[in-house]
Amino acid sequence: MGRPDLSRRHLLAAVGGLTVAGSFGFAALGTGADALTTAGRTRVRYWNLFSGGDGYNMIAMLDAFRRAEPDVAVSDATLQWGSPYYTKLAMAAAGNRAPDLGVMHLGRVTGFSPGRLLDPWDMDLLAKYGVREEDWNPALWQRGVIDGTLYALPLDIHVQLCFYRRDVLKKADLLGDDGLMVPVTSTTEWFDVLKKARKVQKKGLQTIGLWTNDQNFQWWFFVAFYTQLGGRWFNDANTEVLFDVDKATEVLEFFRKHVTDGYVIPGAPTGEQFVNGAPFTWEGNWSVPVFSGAKLDYGATPLPPVFGKQATHAESHSFVLPHQAGRGGAANEGAHRLAAYVVKHALQWAAGGHIPAYTPTLSTPAYKKLTPQHEYVSAMDHQATEPKVWFAGSTGILAQDLGPIVVSSTMGSAKPAAAAQRMKKQLTKLLATKNPMDGRTAAQGGASA
User: Cα–chain-centroid distance for residue 75?
Assistant: First the structure.
C-alpha cells in the first residue's frame, strides 16, 4: 500500500493545531548540514526525555562515551517527558529539523509512522559496532520491528514491581529462608498475605499502595493482570476486537477488593507511605533509587502471578532515528555508534532500576550484585505489553481512554462489569479510528513482527 506524504501542515493539524515552529526551539537545533564540527569531529545531535535520576545516569553514560570516542561530539538535549516530547519530535521530523538520534518508548513506535517520521536502522552499521539481534530478548527486539524492518533499538525494559519491606514481612512470617517474599500464586494467597501483613504493620498506614486514582498506573496494572489471564486485545489482522469482558471484570474486581477490604487508602502518597513503614507498594522500577536512598530494608519482585501466569507490565526506552531527508554520512554513522555504545554499556542505567535490554549485561558479576535489581530481572522473560497498534504506548491514546475507566471501577464510581463493557466499546472505537500521522487505521497500518 502506498503511503501519502505527510506534510508539515498535516502534522500540525494532527498534533492539535500548533502553528509556531519557533516555539519549539527548532531554529537553535540546526539541521543535518552541520554534522561536522570545525575541529573535524563528527557532531551527533541527540534528544531524550530523561530527567531526575534517569537524567543523571544518561549524562554519566554520555560522558563515558565522550571519553571512549573523542572523535564524536555529542550535542544532547533533554526535553519535557510525555506528549510534549513526542509532539516536538514529530514536528522536527516533518520539518526536516530532526536530531540524528532520539529516544522513544517502544510502544509508541508503531504510531509514529515508521518510514515517514522514523528512519530504519542500518543493520550493517549496527553490526560494525557490535549490535547483534541474538544479544536481545527476542520478544523485546521484535517490538521494534515494523513490516520486517528495525525502527527501534531497545535500551531497557522498565516494569511495574511489587515492593515489600522485609522488616514488616519478617514479623508476619512472610519471608522465605532466602530472605525473599513468599511466593504467591492465587488471589486467595495474595489477600492472605495482605491480611497477615496488616496485623503487624504500623497503625495509620495503608497495607499496600496501588495508585488507585492514577490513570496511568491503574492502566499498567490492568495490562499486567489481564495478560496473566491470557486475555487478548485484537485479532492478528487488527480488524476485530477480542477483548474478553469476563476476564477484564475479574481483574477489575480484584483491584476493587483492595479498596473495599481496607488495604488501600485512596489518594494516599504511595511511596511516602512505604518509606514510613507500609508493607507493600506497587511502583515502577524507577523507584529503586528512591527507596535505596532512604536506606530501607526492602525487596522488589515482579507483580504477583495471582491469576496463575507470570506477567508484569513492561515498557521500554529505545533509540530511534528521527526522519531526516538524505540521512547518511558521518552524523548518521555517529548516531549508530553512540546508540550501540550506550546499549552495550548500560550498567550505569541499571543502577536506576531499569533492566538493560542488552542481555550480556545481565550475566556480569557487577549486575548480579545490584540489589534488588537481580530479584526482578526475570521480568524480561514475561513482559506484559500493550497491543502493537498506533494508539498504544506510554502516555498514548489507549492509556488516556481506558485508564480512567479502570480508575472508576477501582474507586467505586462504576461497577467492574459495566467498566469492562465500556473498555470493550472504547477499544472498538479506537480500532476503527485513523492514525492522524498517516490517515490509516490499525488494520491498514499493518504493524507486523
Answer: 25
Cis bond upstream, residue 266 (ω within 30): no
129 grid coordinates: 559496532
Q: Which alpha helices (H) appear in 261-364, and where do they start and end?
A: 270-275, 288-293, 329-344, 347-350
- Sign of the torsion angle spanned by Cα atoms 143, 148, 151, 155: positive
CA 10 from centroid of its chain's CA atoms:
28
Query: What is residue 309's DSSP assignment?
Result: S
**Spatial CB neighbours of 138, under 8 Å, sequence gap ≥ 6:** none
**3-state secondary structure string, 184-245?**
CCCHHHHHHHHHHHHHHCCCCCCCEECCCCCHHHHHHHHHHHHHHCCCCCECCCCCCECCCH
Q: Are 258 and 268 in contact (CB under 8 A)?
A: no
Question: What CA–CA distance (Å, rounded) separates 109 from 70?
Answer: 31
| Contact (CB, 8 A) for 212 and 206 | no
The alpha carbons of the chain give a radius of gyration, in whole angstroms, of 22
Per-residue pLDDT band for 84 (boundaries 50, 70, 90) equals confident
Does pTM surpass 0.90?
Answer: no
pLDDT tens, residue by residue, 260-277: 999 999 999 999 999 999
pLDDT tens digits for range 107-146? 999 988 788 899 999 999 999 999 999 999 999 999 999 9
pLDDT digits (tens, 9 = 90+) for 23-76: 223 223 333 333 344 367 899 999 999 988 899 999 999 999 999 999 999 999
- Judging by DSSP bridges, how do beta strands 280-284 and 118-119 pair with one another? unpaired
Contact of 175 with 169, CB cutoff 8 Å: yes
- Are 300 and 271 within 8 A, CB to CB? no
